[in-house]
Design brief:
The chain has helices spanning about 35-40, 75-80, 85-100, 125-135, 145-150, 155-165, 180-190, 210-215, 255-260, 290-305, 320-335, 350, 360-370; strands at about 20-25, 30, 50, 60-65, 115-120, 170, 195-205, 245-255, 270-275, 310-315, 345, 375, 400, 405-410, 415-425. The protein is α/β, with parallel strands linked by helices.
């Protein structure tokens, strides 16, 4: 149990304060907290050539895939065959998060435990296979479970089904901001009394020819196929697009009072959360970072803190030319002169862009950075961009004591979500 002294002053009673007591992670750097954190601390890239057979006419060949994933370790093999890869990820991450939290699901509490898992792109790899089967072999050969498995609420629903959770169940599909929103909204669900515990985060598994072709047609992807590990280079002047990734991050959230009562290990408190819309373009960020800045300012206001209390920012920073500039401008607008004194890192330089799962995995990176007093680096930073002139912690992790940190997530459609997290140590 955490001592009272570690927690910041708050006007909220403990019943309204929401903390994170468990984390489950599947990332391109490995499965589980230890492999993920060690990879970040070492500045290691999880980006490689794609494992599926590559067609010669496709000008891309790199992605950030989850290595060594065996769904049968986390669920019945028959059940696994009926799920999309994204749902398999979600179930695995949720099981890990529950085990990590020390919370036992039983008949006395399962009605009060809910699920809120972000997933935006349903299941493109499975859709690709089904479409090919339909045109090449006919409708009689289509997997009868495919349609149901591809519904966007399935990761959340499968978590509830597999773990026997009978409380609130829903999903959020706001693209790359989705899992940050899922975490923030899960806390609100707890505060309003619709759940005592929430399993919240995101899961995405979209790597396939179809998805890569779509993003390539938008000119959104990096084409550094000759050197995959250096392809994702946020804030670097030579950045040329993001690298598609996959993975999942699921948190156990509960009331501070309940966590203390059961003697739970507490990772962090979610002290601030906000979302705002650019209302500008379906894929491009507002060039001035308007919505992102407003989301950051609202999150700070809800947390009851000032910009100079932020010790670290985990940036959205996808490695796109326009996006990284817009985020830099947004940070300056929201935090003023303190923006130049805050260390900022872009962990997408190592894990690629996990789309709907990005916010949750990056929130986990933020929490682990505070826990270990070490700021992960932004790797592949070689050439300074005059339009990106903040402290991006280039190439090497940096020791630092952090008490309050911010995690940014911005999605297609102009959705901007920000989490403010307070360390428990």
């Amino acid at each position: 149990m955490q001592p009272e002294s570690v927690w910041p002053s708050s006007n909220r009673p403990d019943d309204e304060r929401v903390v994170i007591t468990g984390m489950g992670l599947l990332t391109p750097l490995g499965i589980g907290q230890e492999r993920f954190w060690n990879g970040l601390a070492e500045g290691r890239s999880g980006i490689h050539r794609v494992t599926f057979e590559q067609s010669s006419d496709l000008p891309y060949a790199i992605a950030a895939e989850v290595p060594d994933f065996d769904p049968n370790q986390y669920m019945d093999s028959k059940e696994a065959r009926r799920m999309s890869r994204a749902s398999q990820f979600a179930v695995a991450a949720a099981r890990m998060a529950l085990e990590d939290s020390g919370l036992e699901v039983n008949d006395s509490n399962r009605f009060d435990i809910g699920t809120l898992i972000a997933n935006s792109a349903t299941s493109p790899p499975e859709i690709e296979i089904t479409t090919r089967t339909f045109f090449e072999r006919g409708s009689a050969k289509i997997n009868p479970f495919q349609f149901g498995a591809s519904l966007p609420n399935m990761p959340a629903s499968q978590v509830a089904i597999q773990l026997g959770l009978l409380g609130h169940s829903s999903m959020i599909g706001t693209a790359c901001a989705a899992s940050s929103q899922a975490i923030g909204e899960a806390a609100e669900i707890i505060r309003r009394g619709d759940a005592e515990v929430m399993l919240a985060g995101g899961s995405e598994a979209t790597i396939c020819r179809l998805t890569l072709a779509c993003f390539h047609s938008m000119r959104a992807l990096s084409t550094r196929n000759e050197d995959p590990e250096s392809a994702s280079r946020p804030f670097d002047r030579t950045r040329d697009g993001f690298v598609l990734g996959e993975g999942a991050g699921v948190f156990v959230l509960e009331r501070l009072s309940a966590a203390r009562k059961r003697g739970a290990r507490i990772y962090a408190e979610l002290v601030g959360y906000a979302s705002a819309s650019d209302a500008y373009h379906i894929t491009a960020p507002h060039p001035d970072g308007d919505g992102a800045a407003r989301a950051m300012m609202r999150a700070l206001k809800r947390a009851g803190i000032t910009p100079d209390q932020i010790d670290y920012i985990n940036a959205h920073a996808t490695s796109t030319p326009a996006g990284d500039v817009a985020e830099t401008l947004a940070i300056k607008r929201a935090l003023g002169e303190h923006a130049y004194r805050i260390p900022i890192s872009a962990t997408k330089s190592m894990i690629g862009h996990l789309t709907s799962a990005a916010g949750a995995v990056e929130a986990a990176a933020t929490i682990l950075a505070m826990k270990n007093s070490l700021i992960p680096p932004t790797i592949n930073y070689e050439y300074a961009d005059p339009d990106c002139d903040l402290d991006y912690v280039p190439n090497r992790a940096r020791p630092a004591k952090m008490n309050i940190a911010m995690s940014n997530s911005f999605g297609f459609g102009g959705v901007n979500s920000v989490l403010v997290l307070q360390s428990a140590a």
